[in-house]
Amino acid sequence: MVADASYATSLMIQKLESIFSLSSEEKQALQDLPVQVEVLKPEQDIVRIGDQPSQCCVVLEGFTCVYKLTSDGKRQILALHVPGDMPDLQSLHLQVLDISIASISSCKVGFIQHDCLRRICERHPRLTAAFWRETLVDASIYRDWILNIGQRDAYSRVAHFLCELLMRLQAVRAVKGKAFHLPITQAQLADAIGITSVHMNRVFQALRSDGLIDATRGKVAILDWERLREEGDFDPLYLHLRKPRSA
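The chain above was modelled as a monomer; its predicted structure follows.
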């Protein structure tokens, strides 16, 4: 468990450093944070609308999602979070959450108490800016998702999503070449993209037929990065990476 806690803080540091320059002292302070690691089953809520959490989490393995439900139970996935992300960081400042966050695959997450995060920010004021930037980047991704769902056709939406995911996973070294694990079902992805699962299946088949991707057994390989970027109308500016890495 100690090794898991150390990995959790190391991954958090790696993610923060992709968007913010940290000093060695700041990195050590983050490394010393106490973390409680838990394993979650797929579709297990981490927090729910109306909760007043006293801790934040960092994703270590698998994916989590932010979602909301309509009154008749229809789900819209508003964001996906990958290893290194802190999906509920806003709970440091919002007493009551207006979103739900759940594992979307089997997950491992590390929980850090709010009091610990507040103390570290008091001792290292620049870390307040680092966490603030993390939430601002999350908001930037939200805005691009709205554009993606509202103005692009399904083929372009999925192409854009895969481009985004590749670059976000590259930032925490979770890709091999141009391939990465996508541990979610097409039905779950359809909830994020805003189309039916049947339509999602057709889009994946089309992307494969066009030679842009290969997708089998929860793994996606990008076969033609430039064409995928063009089809998805993808510009990584909104990710605000310090050192954008071309795929």
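The chain has a mean pLDDT of 93.
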